[in-house]
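Hi D.,

Good news: the full-assembly prediction came through. Inputs first.
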Amino acid sequence: MTDFPPAEYEARVTRAQGAMAAAGMDALLMMTEVEVRYFSGFRTAFWQSSTRPWFLIVPRIGAPVAVVPEIGEALMRSTWVRDVRVWSSPHPSDDGVSLLRDALAGFGVVGMPMGRASALRMSMLDFRRLGVEPVDASALVWNLRFVKSAAEIEAMAAICAVGSRAFARAGSLFSGGMALDAAFRAFRIALLEEGAEEVPYVVGGAGADGYGDVISPPGATALRRGDVLMLDTGASLRGYFCDFDRNFAIGHASDTAKRAYRTLWEATEAGLSAARPGRTCSEVHAAMTAALGDADGGIGRLGHGLGTELTEEPSLAAFEDRVLVPGMVLTLEPSIGVGPGTMMVTEENIVVTEDGPRLLTERAAPELPVIG
Amino acid sequence: MTDFPPAEYEARVTRAQGAMAAAGMDALLMMTEVEVRYFSGFRTAFWQSSTRPWFLIVPRIGAPVAVVPEIGEALMRSTWVRDVRVWSSPHPSDDGVSLLRDALAGFGVVGMPMGRASALRMSMLDFRRLGVEPVDASALVWNLRFVKSAAEIEAMAAICAVGSRAFARAGSLFSGGMALDAAFRAFRIALLEEGAEEVPYVVGGAGADGYGDVISPPGATALRRGDVLMLDTGASLRGYFCDFDRNFAIGHASDTAKRAYRTLWEATEAGLSAARPGRTCSEVHAAMTAALGDADGGIGRLGHGLGTELTEEPSLAAFEDRVLVPGMVLTLEPSIGVGPGTMMVTEENIVVTEDGPRLLTERAAPELPVIG
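Then the structure:
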């Protein structure tokens, strides 16, 4: 059983094979959770365990080959992949290496993602034992992943709707006096109740007029009147993510907080106007930057790709000249410095269509909502 | 703010430095979530984002150096690490590489985990640009991580207690007619309600007398009378995991299911008798294997280390001759084939003490519980 019908994965492999022919690659070697899942449909929480390596080979001609620990055999055989080769892992001396080497034999040029956001998810000593000198396939794989299919967009619309429903309950979930870690926990539960399958990512912050950073785990400090509470989720459904946040003032919103929030809202509007096919990421970035003025929240970009990972290429950044095409799913994530060590950030999720961007998230209110 | 006081992390670094001196290494280069957190206390869900690399250098002499994207600066500065060097990431051409190269300059022999369960969590192209030829530090780092401190054991006892409380509610959470994915969701919520901070890992299965594998995500099939439902969690608190499961018969337990369950329970008892300081992992494995007889569930080992990762070294496997010492936290995880394509598995978590193993989980019932 996979999240989508076999035709979805076959289409991805067919596109990959066309790109491999153009790039002069004979096979792709995939080994991260996302890469293996993207082409096979193999989805399991078991990637949490770092003990065992997993491999998928996508040849330029023919069908994919999975080389996996036997604990994953039944699940891999439930996907559309027919050629499944297994070994008993962990193995003291040959943890899939000779099996993988055999499977790669005969392929001339082997591609593997080696650029930004890639990882070697196997022992480097074992990798060297393979005797393969791969070429970088990052651009090739990202060119496929950038553009989402109708099925992918539907999955992402569904998880964004889950997130929107959970945020809509903020008024009853959060209130002054509640500890921040309790607010995080209540929000995780709300996401699950609304239909999320997993909630791998919840971050946020709270403080007077803003928060210090956006990646810290929550402490036990109670929410106070005048605090701005921000929660940002990464919930998932069928292996696809939403990634958006909402801000709420607890009891009272200061003029400073209201002004910063409104500026962020306008910056997102500017991003929505700019995010059309044919425009570049840097142009969307520039539109949002202009709306923000001098304030920079310091998170390094103003949005990013979204899909089967919480953050994907491309970045909405000044250096990114990639052109937007229909089917790209992006976050618009302007951030702003509010005071010394204090910032605010907002985030929405969109899909680029022929007619311009379509919001997958229920658009945040234009004025900072006051709750609790 | 870190999960433990600075002294906990300082002690880890001091132990590492002693081991580095003995191994002839001048610095350790750490870049995975667990390795960076182990020595610094830096904990964030932001590792979910693959876009940015993070680095920590542990020198043989002196204090650790963090080289991280500026989005993580505030959080890293809240740890005990004083030397924090940042850059604006993502960067189009130099994503921390020159900063890291400078920080590594002057160290002769640089160690990096390159063996089993390790990963290169950065662009391999960027890694090559570093110009560093590291030596394998897997054994060194595992030798530290194997033995848990009192603080670590306390955190793990707490999350195991959370899991035990959630499983104790099984009778009211699960019942015949409930879809398996709804059971998973109810269990995740129960874990959060009982105090889990995150629930990164829930797997399981259900079927007549057992299940087909132990790593699949749940489908929507309803639980039927006579099914054995197994749920296995990886919940976490302060960055430390429990990893155990429970089996429940829905409405009725067949003799086959009862017999298999009892055999697994006895195998765990055998493991508990064997898991004493001075014994090897292979001896514990042998004791459990003897109790299981010919049946093998095919998951490749009968338990493993547990800590700040869901699965850690060592394996309870025939090939593993590591000697148990006080402070090691292990899972005992016997599995058994029940019929064609059907298996059962049980799991408990223990800490090895001078006096033998101490259960961190509330021991499963000796007979298969019937609920719903």
